[in-house]
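Intended use. Records such as the Negative regulator of genetic competence MecB/ClpC entry shown here are meant for training and evaluating sequence-to-structure methods. They are not intended to support clinical decisions.
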Amino acid sequence: MPNIKSIRDGSVHLYGQNAAIDRVDRAVRRAFSGLLDTKGKPRLSMLLLGPSGVGKTETAKALAEALYGNRDKVARFNANECATEGGQFKAFGPPRGYLGSDKGGQLTQDVKKFHGHCVILIDEIEKGSQEIFDGLMTGLDEGYFEDASFGERISIENCVLVMTSNILADRDLSELDDTELRTAISGARVTNTRNQSTTPFRPEFMGRIQEVICYDQLKPEDIASIVAHKYQRSIAVNIAVQTKLLMLDLSPIALGYITDQVTGSRFGVRHVDQVLSREIVDRVIDMGDALPADRKCWYVWDYRDGELELINVHKEGIAFLREQRGEDHQTTNDYLLRLSKQLIARAREVQNATPRSVAAKTPQPVGGKPAEPSRYIVR
């Protein structure tokens, strides 16, 4: 049997949702074990339920990387684009002679582009028209999508079909068994674009989906890890490239301040980028000439007197971090040294991908294992 690694082991970072990810891993191992007869059907079909911004889309990307070697091998389509009658033409192609028939369907042609070896991601499936559900049922039953523009059948037998929905996101579904969960979804009503109340998930459709998996709202500590990861892997790198300053990290109090702004947002972790942009990027831009002049020092963001401030680690950072973290001096120093090496290496990678005319010189990268997301206590 093939050795399918966990989707946690790839470059796509998944935080929280341990129970959901365990179920996804188990379903993948079962589907690709060779012990099941999946001929004439997709390798695996899943419906992922949960609020917005809790990791459903990231799961699809992690699946693509684990199964097909590239996180970008995702044929993605938002069913909300086909909410009206005739909207299925955008997914499966308009009939010959109609406007756009020379291009085919967006969904079918994306799957064809990947030669039928990809993750098919249908976002907001509950908002799709009945024709979209009919087309998906054909795929679940027969293992192919039919492009009406070209009259061709595109096999999805080697694909994983992932559908996401936030239906019943306001209910606690954790105590329901699989049958009760499918029954609840089948009876759930949705208001469509014509202000009509419908039940999009018919029992015959739910019966064809192999796995229905619920995602929980993320906990504050999970959001804190995501904030720290996004800052260290993206914002801090860009700051290093543009200003030559090593703003390594967020103090526990600064991290807690930013996390509090994300926690409870109905946009989930998608709000992290906006908050970091507003709190960190705007502050760096506003500082302008007031940015620290010493490019050889390390800096850490702290939250003091109602605003974020830069702390020079070499002058006072180690002492205050040690006090906040409850760690000894050496542990904190080693941690920041590792972050420094990581940041320099990633900044070098970014500059190597930048045209030489606009690239600036950066320090030579230093090797080392990737730093794990910060383990902070959020206050």
